[in-house]
Amino acid sequence: MKKSIVAIVLTLCFAFGAFAQGPAGYGGRYGRYPRGGYRDRVPSYRSPMPVSFGTRIGLDYSSVFSEAAALDGRSPEGNFLFGFSLGMPVTRSLDFESGLYYIGKGGRSGSGEARFMYDLNYLEIPLEFRYNYFVSPYFAVRPLFGVYGAVGAGGQIRNYQSRDAFSSYSEGYFRRLDAGFRFGCGLAASIIRLDLVYDLGVANVGQDIFDKTRTGCLMLMFGFDF
Predict the structure, then answer these.
(1) How many C-alpha atoms does 35 have within 13 Å on its Cβ side?
(2) CA 50 to CA 215: how far, in whole Å?
(3) pLDDT digit string (tens) for 104-154?
(4) How far apart are CA 108 and CA 43, in angstroms?
């Protein structure tokens, strides 16, 4: 799994390097601009239709941090994610983005046969602001900060010792609602997007009100904006 992620990251970096050198301009909601660059463009937020749509796929490493031993799965677990984004410029350099994502979160505990796997699959809506730092007329670095809300859409807890599996939201285990902060950084070249994002859960996703349980998830997302 780790080798696959490294290969994907290297491939995406080479792709970004190729697009950053080309004259296509910054696509998506900014349109395509001539060789003079997009930094001197008429701000796109004045356009009658400033909204853009995008698609995203990616990988994530997630953990569950809990004060309750039965829910503590802080060993990272790899999962997939996919969804679409919705963006709107606020100023020339600041964008607002949201969307809807299906994200596999969770974690692992124990080792060998005495191990547990916690799967927590969510439908997630982020609300984030992105600042566009223009490295060149055709390439931008986009730090981001925001919040997210999510609802559980499935998942199982697997006990490998007893060979038993049951819903993660069974009584005494996890709640379906999650929320927290989101921060990270993205790259933009033409219509291509690459984002490294971390979801820091702050809501108690455990049903026990005394022992706090929260999620953490590092995501690498690749996609296009139109």
Answers:
(1) 1
(2) 34
(3) 999 999 877 778 999 999 999 999 999 999 988 788 999 999 999 999 999
(4) 47
